Amino acid sequence: MAEPLLLSTWHFGQIANRAGWPHLLAPDGSALDAVEQACRAVEEDPRVTSVGYRGLPDLKGQVSLDAAIMLSPNRCGAVAYVRRFVEVISIARRVMEQTPHVLLVGEGAEIFAQSQGFRPRSPRADERTAELALCEHHGAEDREAIHARDPRHPHVKDGETSPEAHSGLAADGGRDADSSHDTIGVIARDCRGTLAAGCSTSGLAGKMPGRVGDSPIVGHGLYVDPGVGAAVATGHGELMMAICGSFLAVEGMRRGLSPQEAIAEVLRRIAECIPDRGDRQAAFIALDKAGKWAAGAMRPGFQVAVRTPAGEQLVIPDLVFSDGSD
Ligand code: ASP
Questions:
Q1: How far apart are CA 100 and CA 187, in angstroms?
Q2: Rounded-to-integer distance, Cα 247 and Cα 14, Å
Q3: Catalytically annotated residues
């Protein structure tokens, strides 16, 4: 019997872990169910403004969602640029289970979702998030001012703690400091030792309409090889897409690197290939077949929610490529 494990990106990974964990323990549960339900809980949570129902809008103010789920190179499914459905991780699973394809996009993905009985429901950014998304895109200086006016970002004086901090979840679901992105990425290992991974996102705030990032692309946003391990990415998708980030991490583990060494190699490769990356974030979680895991990021700010039989922890990884001072 393997020890079950659930790893989820960012602070809102705690929401994911709470929903996914029971599926790892249920006698008929599985890593795949755990990943699906973990991502789905975040998609439905209105406090999370970069995934699912309250996702970040594009330049035209519209939200489009991407998701992927994977068990092995031969068993994966994904959808991208979905604008009329929220539970994209479950639609991705249906692509994997019910079609001979890997990726459906746009209208085709929506027609498929409807044929599978999913209820059309458009994700919708709230007004403040839409305003912030445009600011992120244009680098507007008044981002702080918008935050200050936003009741979801209560002003907290030095030394005070916000009510959301007490509740264990920030009002925006606990996102990266630059607030222009964040994917829920999940890796699970069940009692049988089966690995599964999934990710779901609205992509970058203020993206060009039609832009799709790494998350729904096998090898970029996620990769699972049952004989080796799994990896999931979050951050600016264009960085991961330049180097097939998740695939590279799993290939590192195949060559005998530990999950931490594999992630470090991927971050180094991003740095080498994209010297003009600025302060864009790229972060990874990785798990090997034996159950050893690691997380790492280009910049400070990344967190991973870790659930084991011993309990839940929110971990700030030691592996940070740059301390943000460059
Ligand atoms: N990787 C996602 C994208 O670029 C966003 C994120 O994870 O923050 O679409």
A1: 24
A2: 25
A3: 183
Task: Name the residue of 63, 201, 220, 302 to mutate for ligand 1: max ligand atoms within 8 A of Cβ.
Answer: 201
Total residue count of the chain as it appears in this document: 326
Count Cβ neighbours within 10 Å for each residue of 184-195 and write b for 16 or more, e otherwise.
bbbbbbbbeebb
Rounded to the nearest whole angstrom, what is the distance from the C-alpha of residue 166 to the centroid of ligand 1?
28
Report the atom number in ligand 1 closest to the C-alpha of 234: 7
| pLDDT, tens only, 30-45 | 999 999 999 999 999 9
pLDDT confidence band for 149 (50 / 70 / 90): very low
Structure tokens at 115: 């044929």
Beta bridge partners of 295: 285
Tell me: pLDDT of 3 over 80. Answer: yes
**150 has pLDDT over 70:** no
